[in-house]
C-alpha cells in the first residue's frame, strides 16, 4: 500500500470516551481508550523525523538508534558506499567538523511497507555554514528499512544531490575561455 505521509511528525490521536457513567454515580472511573496505534508507515515517518533531528544537531549517539550495524550508505557525491555503522559514524563525524548551523527540511515523503521490509523516499533542502561559508543544496533520499526485534532500522540510505552544493553569496565562477 502506498501512502503519502504529511510533513513533520505523524499526528497521534487520543480519543476520550464516556466520562462519568450515566446518572453521574460517584465512585466510578471515567472510561478512556488507549492511544490509537500507529501504522508502520507512521512509525517510519516518525523515525525519519527523529533521525534527521539527530543528524541536524550532530548527535551521533542518538543517530545510532536509527541505523542497523550492517547499514550501507550511498552519499550524494561520487564515492564508494560506506558499509557498516562504525564506518558511517566516522564519515559523519568528519563531515560534522566542517558544518555548523545545519538545517535539513524534508518534504514529499512516501513510505511503502511490505511485511518486515519498507522503503521511504523524500526530497530535502539543506543549508549550513560549511567551512565558515553559507551553503545550500537540494536532493532526494531513499531509505530501506527492516523491522528487527520489533523495531524499524535503516539498512540502506541512498542520497542523491540535485545539481551541486552552492556557496550562498559567493562570486560566480569566472567565464570559461572562449565563451
Walk me through the topology.
Blueprint: E1 2-5, H1 40-57, H2 60-64, E2 67-74, E3 82-83, H3 85-96, E4 99-114, E5 117-130, E6 133-148, E7 151-167
Strand/helix succession: EHHEEHEEEE
Rounded Rg? 22 Å
Number of helices: 3
Q: What fraction, in percent, of the residue positions are helical?
A: 10-25%
Tell me the structural class: alpha+beta
DSSP strand count: 7
Detailed description of the structure:
With 179 residues, the chain is α+β, with helices and mostly antiparallel strands. The chain has one domain (38-167): Roll (Nuclear Transport Factor 2, Chain: A), CATH 3.10.450.50. The chain has 3 helices and 7 strands. The chain has a 7-stranded mixed sheet. A hairpin with a 7-residue loop joins strand 2 and strand 3.
Brief summary:
The protein is built from three helices and seven strands, in the order βααββαββββ.
List keywords for this structure.
about 180 residues, alpha+beta, Nuclear Transport Factor 2, Chain: A, 7-stranded mixed β-sheet, disordered N terminus
Amino acid at each position: 500500500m502506498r501512502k503519502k505521509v504529511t510533513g513533520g511528525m505523524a499526528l497521534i490521536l487520543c480519543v476520550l470516551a464516556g466520562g462519568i457513567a450515566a446518572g453521574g454515580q460517584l465512585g466510578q472511573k471515567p472510561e478512556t481508550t488507549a492511544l490509537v496505534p500507529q501504522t508502520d508507515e507512521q512509525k517510519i515517518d516518525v523515525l525519519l523525523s527523529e533521525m534527521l533531528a539527530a543528524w541536524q544537531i550532530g548527535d551521533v549517539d542518538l543517530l545510532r538508534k536509527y541505523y542497523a550495524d550492517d547499514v550501507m550508505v550511498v552519499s550524494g557525491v561520487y564515492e564508494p558506499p560506506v558499509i557498516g555503522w562504525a564506518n558511517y559514524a566516522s564519515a559523519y563525524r568528519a563531515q560534522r567538523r566542517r558544518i555548523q548551523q545545519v538545517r535539513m527540511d524534508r518534504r514529499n515523503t512516501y513510505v511503502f511497507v511490505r511485511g518486515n521490509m519498507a522503503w521511504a523516499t523524500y526530497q530535502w533542502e539543506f543549508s549550513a555554514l560549511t567551512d565558515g561559508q553559507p551553503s545550500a543544496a537540494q536532493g532526494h533520499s531513499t531509505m530501506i528499512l527492516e523491522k528487527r526485534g520489533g523495531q524499524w532500522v535503516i539498512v540502506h540510505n541512498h542520497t542523491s544531490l540535485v545539481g551541486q552544493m552552492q556557496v550562498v553569496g559567493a562570486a560566480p565562477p569566472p567565464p570559461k575561455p572562449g565563451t
